[in-house]
Specification:
The chain is of the alpha/beta class. 23% of the residues lie in helices and 25% in strands. It is built from 9 helices and 17 strands. The strands form 4 sheets. Strands 3, 4, 5, 8, 9, 16 and 17 form a 7-stranded mixed β-sheet that branches. The protein has a 6-stranded parallel β-sheet with strand order 12-11-10-13-14-15, with helices on one face. A two-stranded antiparallel sheet has the order 1-2. Strand 16, helix 8 and strand 17 form a beta-alpha-beta unit. The longest helix is centred in the middle third of the chain and has 20 residues.
Length: 363
């Protein structure tokens, strides 16, 4: 049928065959007054995509088109849309709908709305079409206005795409923790999330330290803004850093292997270790006694809010921040290469799928 009745995307048919993508049509949600149709220019490849299609986070509806770091051009806007017009370059992240009426939504915490709909793999209610939300490895995406963001002119699309999830996921907790001048911040991991965390913390005025088990990443960490690189492979690596960090942002995907007491011991009194890396396996065993020596705490978060997205984009634009991005032309083979590269930790440090016009020439 084709647009606007159907969209086309690269879809996985089974979690048992999660690197095998097939281009096929799918039906989008019902178009409503605050919806925007976006012709996709590029899409970042997130670790969430891999965890979802390979079953690491549990079952998922199939067939599925993943991708929630979308940049493209608005080609249709509903009658109720006030903030975007046809032709605008916009982005969509990991959330595509919320009720906008509950307590979290009314306090700029719509990312915690109990009725929230994720950008892919989530069911829409019958009044919205009753379909499964499909993501950005596709010709188009249909998004609610509140979860559609205009992109500053000086941020290239392939760099803006990963900011829609990885960028916001790391910016929000740093902002909410009051990171800025006079604060010492530890970033755990130098990957797709850690790259942004280092950049943001430095740009916000903090003193940034990187904790990593990969010494080969020291040069990149310092180029991104780290003052010190601390190798967690060293024996007693944590001892010289006791009571040092006001805030620790854990972006790593291997927390199940951590000696959590060592990490917590580097926090200053009442410091917090905050998790945004979401591995497949559980955290190591935790005892209440771990928090007693310095009164520290642990927490986590889910992406960020609309105001935080715009603050993040403004920071990136004004300070001309440049993430380290690799591009891959989208195709069945390109999608396979991308998800395998993320799963095998080959990417430095974020993939963006590009050349959508070639993959979808008839849209």
């Amino acid at each position: 049928m084709g647009y606007p009745d159907t969209f086309e995307g690269f879809m996985v048919q089974s979690q048992d065959d999660w690197t095998n993508f097939k281009k096929q049509e799918f039906k989008p949600k019902k178009f409503q007054e605050r919806d925007i149709d976006i012709e996709i220019e590029c899409c970042g490849v997130c670790g969430s995509d891999v965890h979802t299609i390979n079953g690491g986070w549990g079952g998922a509806p199939m067939p599925l088109c993943v991708g929630h770091e979308v940049i493209g051009k608005a080609v249709k806007v509903g009658d109720g849309v006030k903030t975007v017009k046809v032709g605008d370059r916009v982005g969509v992240g990991a959330q595509i709908w919320a009720c906008l009426e509950c307590k979290p939504c009314k306090s700029d915490n719509e990312n915690y709305c109990p009725k929230k709909i994720d950008t892919y793999g989530a069911p829409y209610p019958e009044e919205m079409g009753g379909v499964i939300a499909q993501g950005g490895y596709a010709s188009h995406i249909r998004a609610h206005e509140y979860f559609t963001f205009k992109i500053p002119d000086n941020i290239p699309s392939e760099e803006a795409a990963p900011m829609m999830c990885a960028g916001l996921t790391t910016y929000s907790p740093l902002l909410r923790a009051g990171v800025g001048p006079g604060k010492k911040v530890a970033i755990v991991g130098v990957g797709g999330l850690g790259m942004y965390a280092i950049m943001w913390a430095k740009a916000m005025g903090a003193e940034v330290y990187v904790l990593s088990h990969s010494p080969k990443k020291e040069e990149a960490a310092k180029e991104l803004g780290a003052k010190e690189f601390i190798s967690t492979l060293d024996n007693d690596w944590d001892k010289p850093w006791a009571f040092t960090f006001n805030f620790m942002l854990n972006t790593a995907d291997a927390t199940d292997k951590f000696d959590l007491a060592a990490y917590l011991g580097t926090l200053d009194v009442n410091g917090q270790m905050h998790h945004v890396g979401l591995p497949d396996k559980p955290l190591p065993e935790i005892k209440a006694q771990m928090f007693a020596p310095n009164g520290c705490s642990m927490g986590g978060s889910h992406i960020g809010s609309r105001p935080e997205m715009f603050e993040m984009l403004k920071l990136a634009s004004e300070k001309k921040l440049k993430p380290i991005i690799e591009t891959i032309p989208i195709s069945e083979a390109g999608c396979k290469e991308a998800v395998e590269g993320v799963a095998q930790n080959k990417v430095r440090y974020r993939y963006t799928l590009v050349d959508f016009d070639k993959a979808f020439p008839n849209r």
